[in-house]
Specification:
four-stranded mixed beta sheet; alpha+beta; 109 residues; single chain; globular
Length: 109
């Protein structure tokens, strides 16, 4: 039920602001049906999935986009103690990529 309501909210935003881009933050069980048999936001909205996770969490450096359980479109594994990330999209993989320090975010309502 939550994925259905979330998908309706995303569609409302798309209709209200057709030229705007946005990011939806959701837990892993809501992104797609890889964890459950319930359609996730990716299936319901036709949106790509991006998974961002802690590189040091499980020390599994061999996990990539093909072997990750969520089967994301983009996988970013970051080391929270440095500016190093492994970024994978499709067949492209960049290991030990330098990540710029974030600038102050600009929020609009």
């Amino acid at each position: 039920m939550m994925n259905y309501i979330g998908a309706k909210q995303i569609q409302k935003f798309k209709n209200d602001f057709p030229n705007e881009k946005f990011i939806v933050l959701a837990g892993s069980s809501h992104i797609n049906r890889q964890y459950t048999d319930i359609p996730g936001l990716a299936e319901l909205t036709g949106s790509p999935t991006v998974v961002i996770e802690d590189l040091q969490k499980d020390n599994q450096t061999d996990v990539d986009i093909k072997t990750h359980k969520a089967k994301p479109d983009v996988l970013i594994r970051m080391d929270p103690t440095s500016n190093v990330a492994q970024i994978t999209q499709g067949h492209i993989s960049v290991k030990n990529a330098e990540v710029e320090e974030p600038r102050s975010p600009t929020f609009r309502r």
